[in-house]
Amino acid sequence: MGTTDTGHQPDGAGEKQSAPRRRADAERNITAILDAALVCFTEQPQASMTAIARTAGVGRVTLYAHFPSREVLLEAVLDHTITLASAVIDTAAPNEGPAVDALSRLLHISWHVLDRHRRLFEIAQRELDPAVLRQHHDQAMSRVEQLLIRGQQEGAFRTDLPLNWLVTTVYSLLHAAAADVNTGHLKQNTAADVLEATLLPALRPPQATVRRRRRG
């Protein structure tokens, strides 16, 4: 005797079929929340989670399901922004040409990226632990480290100081420039040139700096 097809799906089949849709919905919600949080943090540093949820077009329950606290959300926005920034920084072609020229390109592009999001980084510096903040920058700063190593091999950058300290110098001055622009102590349109004029002499081998001064 043949079996009769009742048209019913096995238990759990409907759930399996809807799982991809749930994942897609979750990903859309996360993207909307991150985009909204970036806007809110930039325009209104004290923006509440309620305001961010409203801007994202999601409920508070959905927001807290993905990001249980403001700190977690801020870290996620920072990480998302740095990931996007890293792709832009790659356009500086840090592996091409003399290391000094590559660093100059990298500084200018890095500054333009940082300048666009300096309000976000200002909030992050105020609300996140410095070690956590630096950890989020590791991906981007690894490009700086690789470039400094190449410059040392070319004889263009100093080797008498720890490499980590040279990377920290670049990192710190970039953020110091953003802070000074925020407070009006540094003009936005000259910040990249000021950074280059400060960092390149600091990174050159000591004897190269002395020779340049004598020629001047």
UniProtKB/TrEMBL annotation:
Protein name as it appears in the record: TetR family transcriptional regulator
Organism domain of life: Bacteria
Residue intervals of the HTH tetR-type domain: 27-85
Keywords for this protein: DNA-binding, Transcription, Transcription regulation
Lineage: Bacteria, Bacillati, Actinomycetota, Actinomycetes, Streptosporangiales
Signal peptide: none
Keyword Transcription regulation among record annotations: yes
Native source species: Nonomuraea fuscirosea
Pfam families reported in the protein's UniProt record: TetR_N
Region (Disordered) location: 1-24
PROSITE patterns assigned: HTH_TETR_2
Residue range(s) of DNA binding per entry: 48-67
